[in-house]
Each structure stands twice: as C-alpha cells, then as structure tokens.
Amino acid sequence: MRLNQATDYAFRAVLYLAQLPPGEVVEAQVIARHEGIPMRFLLKILRLLTKAGIIYSYRGVGGGYALARPPVEITLLDVMLAVEGPVQINRCLKDLGACTKKGPPHCPVHRALASIQKTLIEQFKSYNFACLAGGSPEPVPEVTKPAGKRFSCGGAN
Amino acid sequence: MRLNQATDYAFRAVLYLAQLPPGEVVEAQVIARHEGIPMRFLLKILRLLTKAGIIYSYRGVGGGYALARPPVEITLLDVMLAVEGPVQINRCLKDLGACTKKGPPHCPVHRALASIQKTLIEQFKSYNFACLAGGSPEPVPEVTKPAGKRFSCGGAN
DNA sequence: TTAAAAGTATACCTTGTAAGTTTACTTTAA
DNA sequence: TTAAAGTAAACTTACAAGGTATACTTTTAA
Fold first, then answer.
1. Residues 24 to 63 of A: which have CB under 8 A from any B CB?
2. Which residues form a coiled coil (chains A, B) (predicted)?
3. Is B109 close to A80, i.e. CB distance below 8 A?
4. Side-chain-side CA neighbours of residue A94 (13 Å)
5. Structurally, what CATH architecture does the domain formed by B5-131 represent?
6. pLDDT one digit per residue (tens) for chain B, 157 residues
7. pTM (global) more than 0.70
8. Looking at the partner chain, which of B84, B91, B123 has a beta carbon nearest the beta carbon of A8?
9. Which of A4, A21, A111, B39 has the smallest number of CB atoms closer than 10 Å to its CB?
C-alpha cells in the first residue's frame, strides 16, 4: 500500500517547476540536483509527465522542461496517473477475474474496497500544485478571482 | 499503491469466519477450499491474524480457527495492520530521513500525503466484518441496540 | 557546418519483495 | 500412540522497483 518512489520524485519535480516563475524552462540537471533525484531516473519520469501533457519538454541546447499548464490545474492525481497508471488498491479492482466472487454484486469486500478507492482518488484530486506551492511566486491579483477560495487544497472543497 | 494479495486473502478468510455461527471452529483446509486460497499460504496468514488477536487457533485433532471477538469489533484496518503492518503510503511517512525536505514543516508534499493517509486509515477503520457479512447469521435482536444504526459500514458513521 | 548541450528511446542490470512451497516440528483428541 | 490438526522457519521463484548504460535525435551558436 505504498506509492512508487518514481511518483514521489514526480511530485517533487512538478512542485519545483510550479514554484518557478510561470513559463520558466529548466534543465533536468537542475531539477535533479535541487531535489536530490538520480539524473537518469528523473529523465525517465519527466518523459512520462511529458507524454501525459503535464509538462512540456524542449530539446536541444538551452532545452529543458516547464509546466504545460498553470499549477492550479495540475493535481496530485494527474501526476500519479501519469507515473503509475490507474489507481487500483486491490488486484480484484483491476481484473474482475481475480475476484473469487466474480465482482461487486456478490463480494462485500470488493464493494468496500471500491468505495475506499473512490474516496482515495478524490483525495489525490483535491490537491493541486498551486496550493502545494503555497501561494504562487507571482501571486494572481485577488480581484481577478471570484470571492472566497481561489482553489481547493486538500479534503474540503 | 496496492494491497498485498495476503491482505486480500485475510479479508476473505475473516469474512468467512464472520459468516459462521459465532464460536464455530473450522480447519484451515475448509477456509482454503471455500475461498480459493493456497492452503500453506493461508496458514501463514492465519498465524498473523492469530498473533494479532483477531482469531483464535486451536491445535491438534479437531482444531482450527475461529474469530476471537464479534465481527462488529473487527475492522478492515485491524486485518490490514495484522498482515501488512502499519499503513505508509509513502516512503517519507515511514522514515523521515527519506524526506529530502526533512519532514512536514518544510515539505508540502509530505503534509498532503500525511493527510490523505489519515483519511485512508479512517476509511479502512469504518468497515467492520459484521457490516461486510451483511447482517449476522444470528441477528442480534433490535431491542438490545440503540435506535438508528447498529454499526457503521463505510464512510458515513 | 559542426560541436556541444540538451532531451529521447530502449535495453539492461541489480536488488528487494511478493507469493507461495517445503521440511521438520508440536499439540491434542480418540 | 497415531493421525489430524496447527507452528515455525527456511527456501524458492517470479516479478517489479529502482536505477544505469548505450546509442540516438534535436537544436543552438560559434
């Protein structure tokens, strides 16, 4: 019941990018050093994030990576999905054949786990990288936003 | 981000015992056949449950296993803890040294994951085996219980 | 026009854990 | 005193996690 190390690295890499001035491009090298992630391993993870459309990559001299959209529009769930694929807290939630009781209608364990998983997914979705970065480095002026909360951060929306 | 197969087997084994008349002792053999769990592997799991005080084991001829307390007092969390040990959805929640930012005060990812984990644990705690068994085979008379819900089953208490 | 700095693609390696099995032993009822 | 149960712990096998290496492509700038 644990996240991959790669997912953890991905969280930290995206958070790092989210804390830069918007649009800033940095090389993998810099992220790796700053976050203490093995360089070649990080490159592999960054490719997953690129494929998922979470970051852009720029090749060639002066290349690097930048967020593909505003931090507020990237959730922990997005990053998880990009790195680990779909969340499945139990074998039987992935592959119905793996359920001895052949799925939810007859399997109370299955039903309970499905509900727990649903809540878990919602939780991961409720954190975005604007909130994690703790106020953007270039704060959006309050007037441009609706009154009240700008974005959710954790459980309560 | 997945439960062990052993934990899943444990859920099913305990549920099976919970569905028997209270106090009934059955051999591992029977549980294994009924739930489609490899016999010797199940024995290993049952020993963990015994050590955790969730089931009793009876040795010798005519021996077997039975629940050590009423199903309503056994939660999914109890069984998980017995089989997998403490829930830690990220390395850094187990071992602070694994957090490059040295723990929650300076690490927003850490803080978010800790909160998600807390909710997850509460979820697993909110399911007991009376509710999973779907009404005990020998139903407790309504008069002995307070009005309203007898026990929680899932999210809402 | 080519060298160097970046990312890409893919194959590989190494270690740990999951999942299950085996062997030898102990307890207990009949 | 034997056979049916559980106990204990070592062993095996397979797969996945985590990380590395090799060869390649793209791009900029001298």
1. 35-36
2. none
3. no
4. 11
5. Orthogonal Bundle (1.10)
6. 999 999 999 999 999 999 999 999 999 999 999 999 999 999 999 999 999 999 999 999 999 999 999 999 999 999 999 999 999 999 887 766 656 565 556 789 999 999 999 999 999 999 999 999 985 333 344 444 444 445 667 854 4
7. yes
8. B91
9. A21
